[in-house]
Amino acid sequence: MESRTKRRTAGLATAMLIAAGLSVVTAGPASASACTLPPCGRVENKTTTYIGVRWKNNDSDPWSTASLAPGTGMGGYTYSPRRDIDGFYSVQGCRTTYSVRAGSQYFAYGGWVKVSSNETAKVLSVTC
């Protein structure tokens, strides 16, 4: 029961952050580009909670954000719509586990996590 409440809280916090247009940057600036040629960044949500993602088509554009449902992905050249996803959101106070290469495992503890254009970030778990 407590775990379900924590997942809902994490999902609600992500949704509120996206709705408010706020961002906390934990990595260097992402390289903005439309996905007209490969490679293009991608995020896959392997968790049971929603994950915030963001992208820009040009450096002068405002950030576009979306909430990525559990079991879904966004971005990449071979997926429709073609988007170069620049990052995903790790909820403050929670541990987000993700992978960008086979066998790799990284942790984030709050804020936006950069996804390079040549990477597919697989968000594996969110523990609050």
UniProtKB/TrEMBL annotation:
Keywords: Signal. Residues 1-32 form the signal peptide. This is Ig-like domain-containing protein. The lineage of its organism: Bacteria, Bacillati, Actinomycetota, Actinomycetes, Streptosporangiales.
